[in-house]
Every structure is written in structure tokens, then in C-alpha cells.
Amino acid sequence: MKALITGVAGFIGSTLANRLTTDGVTVVGLDSLTDYYELELKQQNLAALTSPLFSFHRGDINAVDLDALLNDVDVIFHLAGQPGVRGSWGDGFDAYVDANINATQRVLEAVRRSAHRPKVVYASSSSIYGEAESYPTGESVTPRPRSPYGVTKLAGEHLCRLYSANDGLRTVSLRFFTVYGPKQRPDMAFTRFLRAAVEGTTIGVYGSGEQVRDFTFVDDIVNALVLAARTDVTPGSVYNVSGGGSHSINEVLEMIAEISPRALKIERSAVAKGDVSRTAADITAITRDLGWAPTVQLRDGLERQLAWVQASAE
Questions:
Q1: Rounded distance between C-alpha atoms, residue 29 and residue 57, angstroms
Q2: Rounded to the nearest 10 degrees, what angle do helices 148-167 and 103-113 cross at?
Q3: Residues in the chain with pLDDT < 70?
Q4: Which of 62, 115, 208, 278 is disulfide-compatible with 212, CB 3.0–4.6 A?
């Protein structure tokens, strides 16, 4: 098996690349190494990928020769994109359209041209639901994104579906629910919280902290990606991927206080624009079709991420 991972230098991409090469899979990694967060962190992720089965290409999906990169590739894990809800408003939207919509369309066009047409596993997001009409939220619930970011991720899903319907491409979209764990981006809540706990600095919390999220450990996300690549499902399928239990931000802070080496200092600010009050996923479909289920409970995952933050600080 040979895989192409877009966004390979990121949190999920580098974790997936390590898992695949450990399993004996040849991996081609593609990443443009943008400066959305510290480039040094991405370079550290790449430096840790030492397997001879891994090769790296630096480049923008919208500019590189994808036809050449797809040579003999069996599956594409399309993880690249512009992340973050807060930066997707106003003038920032152009970058999201380019990285999340145009790049996805270009990947699908390259697959359509390819003689062997590799499978495409697309990383979508729970942000496509917005304030969902029911909980736990199943894949059949009408998406109502509350941020431009969510709109672009939903557009990527629709592109995968239409290329499956019109051109027979084998695509699977996975809707990730709040992914955390070692190597998580520095702008994301758990990394900010845990780093502040280790350093004794102030933890910034948007809103009351009563917002509820369905948190998913990165190793469980990687397991879902691998199963989606290896399992025959209906082309164009979409699945929720979540940790299977919802917790408020305040509950998370309580857990961190219990495992933290220092007392927490918390400062609250206004709710962020585009934020939603709750996410909770119905994972019946992915359990039935892929045999996937989460294995890491939140406290265990937080302890693992805390250990990584502490090691990074040394």
C-alpha cells in the first residue's frame, strides 16, 4: 500500500504518517508549511518521521504537480486545509476558500485524471453542523455552519460527493469532533490550557465555559482514517468521528486542575464569534460500517497530552 498525506506536517497528518509507516505503508507527505502557527513545530513533526518508507514534498496543493505525486498511490488522506473558526471572517476568508475548497477540487480532479484512481479520505469537521437541530447529531441532520470555516469544510464534502456521483471516485468524508492529544496546535484550547497549567500563566477561556464539546483523541482519529482507507463503503459516504462523550469546558478545566502541577488561573472573555454552544455526535454509522469506536477516555487523553506539553517545555 502507498499513501499520500496532504497536510502531513500538522498535528493529525504527522501522527497518521507515523502510524502508517509503522504498519509498513509507504507514505508520501505533502505540506506547504504555512506560518499559521510556529513553523518550527511543523518541522519538528517532520523530523520525527524517520522511517525510510516516508518521503516529503514541500508545496502548495494549488501549485504542485499532483499527477506526478499520485503515481502508484492507493489512497489519499486529504488533511490539508486552513484551520480555525476565528480567522475565517472578513478578509481572511479568501485563504479558506483557496486552501479548503480550491485545493480539494484540485485533488479530486487529479484523482479523476489518474488511471488507477486512488481512494480519497477527506478530513471534514463537526463545524459543518453549527447549532445542530438535534443531539446526538447524526449524519442525516441538515448542516448549518455558523462560521465561514464551517462553510468551506462543508463545500469540500459536497465536492467529494459530487465527484463520487458523477465520476465514480471512491471518497469518504470524516467529520472530526474536536481533536486533541500530543502535537495539538498551539492555538487550540487544550494545548493553551495545559501549557498555562505547566507554566503557571493565565488560562484564557471564551464565554462561561459551559459550552459542551465531544472531544476525540488523536489516536482514535488516526484509527478511523486507516479504517476508512481499508474498508469498502459506498462512495461519497460521510461519517462522524467523535470520542463518544460530551463535556463542558469547565469540566475539562476541573480535570486539568486535578492532574496539573500548579493551581489554575482562569480569565474569561466574551464568546468567540461563530462558536457554538454544543456538539455531540451519533457514531452509530461509523461503528456499523467501519467497526470503529473510540478507545481513549478524556482524562486519559488529557494526561497523555499533559505529558507531551511537559516534555516540550523541558
A1: 6
A2: 10
A3: none
A4: 278
**Which of 24, 17, 2, 42 lies closest to 183, judged by CA?**
42
Contacts of 123 (CB under 8 A, 6+ apart): 7, 12, 77, 78, 79, 81, 174, 176, 225
Cell of 245: 462523550
pTM above 0.70, yes or no: yes
CATH number of 2-177+217-242+281-294: 3.40.50.720
Q: Compute CA 33 distance to the chain's CA centroid, rounded to the nearest angstrom.
A: 16
pLDDT at 76: 98
As to burial, measured by CB atoms within 10 angstroms (0-12 exposed, 13-18 middle, 19+ buried), residue 113 is: exposed
What are the catalytic residues?
Answer: 149
Question: What is the per-residue pLDDT for 313?
Answer: 86
Domain boundaries, given as residue ranges, for the chain: 2-177+217-242+281-294
| SS3 (DSSP) at 28 | strand
